[in-house]
Amino acid sequence: MFFAGHWNAFYESSSLMKLVEIVRGADTSDETFHATKALAEKFGKTVVICSQDYSGFIVNRILMPMINGAFFTLSTVVATKEDIDTGMKLGTNHPMGSLELADFIGLDVCLSIMEVLHTGLGDSKYAPCPHLVQYVDAGRVGRKCGIGVYDYHKVPEPIKPSPSTLNIYYILNTE
Questions:
Q1: Do residues 102 and 110 make contact, with C-beta atoms less than 8 angstroms apart?
Q2: What pTM, to 2 d.p., does this model score?
Q3: Which residues 6+ apart lie within 8 Å of 22 measured at CB?
């Protein structure tokens, strides 16, 4: 009685994710499968079923090459990071761009998944972009550390002078 489930736990909060991927192993009983599915649904999750246990299941086999492609696009200077993300948001109706999503997931996690896919499936389309590797090697792993593709460090807001300060400045500069 064994099951594998992909609960997207690597995201900031798996409670935000609505999806659970359930993978039936060769010896998973119907009882275990139905109990697992019922548990996921009890947590308010939508369940998708993977027919076989392959690296990456469903979502990562599609999502990670898309993110990797965004890094190749960035590294070859086809477009800026902002334009890549705007293009993906508006062109695919995604709530955030691929690079922004990579920062949210964690660039180290994206790299690890790409390496697992590349090794497990033996397909060169899953080879991690060297630019992604460079970001991770430099410690730029995304939102969790404050910098990834984007810089998430708080930039202090400029001090706005009060009207009385402006009056003093005007008086001093007109004398």
A1: yes
A2: 0.75
A3: 3, 4, 5, 33, 36, 37, 40, 47, 48, 49, 50
